[in-house]
Amino acid sequence: PHAVRLKDYQPPEFLIDRVDLHFELDPDRTLVESILQLRRNPAATRGDGSLVLHGEQLDLESIEIDGHSLTGSEFEVDQDSLTLHRIPDRFSLLTRVRIHPSLNTALEGLYQSGDMLCTQCEAEGFRRITYFLDRPDVMARFTTTLVADKARFPVLLSNGNPMESRDLDGGRHLVRWEDPFPKPSYLFALIAGDLRVIEDRFTTASGREVMLKIFVEPQNVDKCDHAMRSLKKAMRWDEERFGREYDLDIFMIVAVSHFNMGAMENKGLNVFNDKFVLARSDTATDVDFDGIESVIAHEYFHNWTGNRITCRDWFQLSLKEGFTVYRDQEFSADVGSRGVKRISDVRLLRAHQFSEDAGPMAHPVRPDSYIEINNFYTATVYQKGAEVVRMQANLLGPETFRRATDLYFERHDGQAVTTEDFVRCMEDASGRDLTQFRRWYEQAGTPELTAEGTFDAETGVYSLSVRQFTPPTPGQPEKSPLHVPLAIGLLGVDGEDLPLRLEGESEAPRAGTRVLELREEEEHFRFVGLSAKPVPSLLRAFPAPVKLRFDQCDEDLLFLMAHDSDGFNRWDAAQTLMQRLLLTLVRDPDHVVPDSFCDAFRSALLDSAGDQALLAEVLTLPSEGYLADQMDVVDVDGIHRAHAVLERRIGECLRADLLGVYRANTGDGSPYVFTPQAVGRRAIRNLALHYLMQAPDAEILGLCQDQFANGDNMTDVMAALRLLANHGGAEGNAALESFYRRWSRESLVIDKWFAVQASCSREDALNQVLHLMEHPDFSLRNPNRVRSLVGVFCNANQVRFHAPDGGGYRFLADRVLELDPLNPQIASRLLKSMIRWRRFDRVRQSLMCAELHRILDTEELSKDVYEVASKALE
Ligand code: HT7
Ligand code: ZN
User: Fold this and answer.
1) Which of 184, 198, 382, 535 could form a disulfide with 136 if both were Cys (CB 3.0 to 4.6 A apart)?
2) Which residue out of 13, 124, 217, 299 is catalytically annotated?
C-alpha cells in the first residue's frame, strides 16, 4: 500500500455540476443508475485528458456518454477505478452498476443493518455505490430516486427535500429527493426501512418553519424525546452563538444499530449509531444522555462547519472536525456546567490525544500523509483540533472571534477549503499575526512547558520562567517553538486572586486571570508589587494542549485545591496530588497513605456549597491508564495494586462521611430528570458508593444490592452492577444474571452487560471474555458489540489485557485478524490498543511485538490494519 501525500494535491480535472441517481433497492442486488453532468475544471493543471473515476466492488453493467453506449475498448475498469479516454470537455455520463448491500460487512457504502438499508459515505464510501469523483472538493447538486418494495421498505429517505412519491406496480413504490445545496459525495445518504417517525417543528430566527423528524425501528419510538429536545436546543444555540440558521425545510435523523462511528452529518439526513439517539431513564445512563446531547449537536453543527463549507481534501479533516468539536464543547458548556465540561474534555484529551502524540502514529492536526484516511479520524484531528480552535478563540476574545467566524462563513460558503483559509479569516478579522500560531496545525507532539518560580521578599517580585520543548515524533525530529497562550493567576495568603502587574506596567490590572503569550523557547516574567509569597495557579482552564512541569509542593497544591477561583485548577491540583501519591505507592507498596491526604479528601467531600458534579470529578482518582502514561516503563500490576490500596483506604477511613454523602444525595422519589444538578447528585452518590464498596461489610453490600434491585434509573443501576460484578462471588453473578434476564431484548443495554464483564478486574477476566464471545448475543458484525466486549477489555482493563503471559495480546491479534476481512475500520481501531508496546517491560514488549509481526505477516491485510501494524513496528 502506498501513502497519499498533502504535497501531491492537485485540483480535479473535471467538475460535476449535477448528479441524478436512481436506485432499485434490493439487499442482495441493488441497481444503481447514475447520470453525471461533467465539465473540465478550468482551474486544473491539464493531465493526459482522460477521466479517472473512483469505483470499488461495483459490477458494471453499462456506460453511455451523451446517450451513446461505450464498447469495451473505450474504457478501462480495474479494482478501484474506471478510466475514460478521448472524452469531450462537457458531457453527460450514464453508468449502471450492481451492488450487494447484504454482503457489505465493512459498513461503508450501501449496507444492510437489521432489516434496514443504509449508507455511510465518509470518507471514501461513495465509490462503493457508483463511479464518481469521490473527493471532497468536487461538489455537485444531487437528485436521488429510490425504488423499493413498499411492504418491506415503506420509508425511503435521502438528502434534501422530498419532491415526489408514488406507488408502482408489483408492490413497489418510488420516492424522489432533491438537494438544492451542492455537496461532496461523502455527504450523500439514503435510508430504506420499516421505520417509525417522531416529529416536531422548529421556527428559525428568521421565521422559517423546519420539520424535524427522527426515524427509528418500531420498538424504539419511546426513546427519542431526549434526542429531539437536544436537537432543538442545538438549533437555537447555533443561531444565538454563531448566527447560523438551518437552511432546508426538513431535518432528519435516523438511528441504526450497525455503525462504525458515532454518527454522520449527511446533508439534511443525519445517520446515527442508535447509541447516540435512544434514551429512556431506565435504559440509558447520565453519560449516555450527555453523549446524545453532544453528538446530536455536533452533527447538526456540521451543517455549517463541514457541509456548507467543506474540506478541500482529507488532510484538512480538522477544518470541519476540530471546529465542530469546539462548537459542540461550547454548546455543552453553555447548556450544562462549564467547569465540569472542561474537566471531562481535558481528561479525554490527556487520556487519548496525549498518548497518541507520544506513540508511533503521532501526527499533526493537519496530517501530511496517510495510507488509509479512516485511520486519521483521531483524537489529534478531533480533540487537539478543537483545542487549536479554542486557542484562537481565546487569543481573539469573544467579539472578535465571532466577527472572524462570521467572515469565515461569508467568505467560504459553498466552498471546499483548507485550515489555512480558516486561520486567514482569524487574522483578517482581528488584525493579528498568526504566522507562528500555524505551527499548531503542522507540528505533532505534545509541547512540554517547564516552569520555575521564585519570590524575592525584599523587592516583592515574583519571577516566573517558562521553557517550552516539544519531543520528536515520527518524521519530525526537530520542533520549533509554538505560540502558546498561558493563563495564570497568583493567590494571596487568604486564597484570593492578586493583581498581576508585570514589571514596567504603570497600572495594576484587575485581580484575576491573566493570559501570557509564549513565543520563544524560554521566557521570563516578573510580577511586581507583591507583599508576600504568592501561590501560582498556572494553566488556568487549560488554555493550551500542553503538559506542564512545575514543581509545586503538596502544601501549595492543597491550597489551590481549597481556594483556587478557577474550578479547573482546583480539580487539576487534586489530580496532581493523587497522582503523586499513587506513583509513590507504585514504587513503594509499604508507603502509608498520610492522614493529611484523608483530611483533605474529607474536607472536599463535606464542602456542600459546591457543584456536586465538579466535586465528583475532584474526588475521582486518575485512571490506571493515565498513571501508566506518567511512567517511563509501565508497571501494570503496581499501578493496579496502588489504585486498589488507595481506593480501599479512602473507603475505610472516610466510611461515615461517605455514607452520609450517599444518604444525603439519595433521591426523594421524584422522577428522573437530566439536569446538571440531578446528574451531579447521582455522580457524587455513586462515587461514594464506589469507595465504600472497596471494602464492603454487610451493610454496604446491602445498600449496593438494594440500589441495583430498586434503582429507578440506569445510572444508579449500572453503577451498582459494576460494583457488584467487581465484588464478584454469588452477589456479582446473581446481579449479572438478573440484569441480563431483565434487559435481554434491549440491545444497547446488553452492550453494557458485555462491557461490565469485559472491564471486570477479576483474575479470570480474559476467560470470561472468551466465554462471552460464544454467547448467542455476541456478534463480530455489530461494531457496538465488538467495542463493548473486545474494545473495553483491551482498553479499559489494563491489568488483565497486559497479563504477563501475553494471553491478552494473543486474544487481540486473533480478533484483529478475524475482523479484518469483515470490517477493517473496526479491526484497525482495536489494534491501536497495542501500538505503544515500547512503554512496557521487555517481556511484554516482545510478546506484543510478536503479535504485531504475526498480523503483519498475514496475507491480504487491509490498508487500515497494515498501516497501524507497520507504523507500530517502525
Ligand atoms: N464526520 C463523521 C465521520 C464518520 C466516519 C468516518 C469514517 C468512517 C465512518 C464514519 N462515520 C462517521 C462523524 C463526525 O465526526 O461527525
Ligand atoms: Zn464531526
Assistant:
1) 184
2) 299
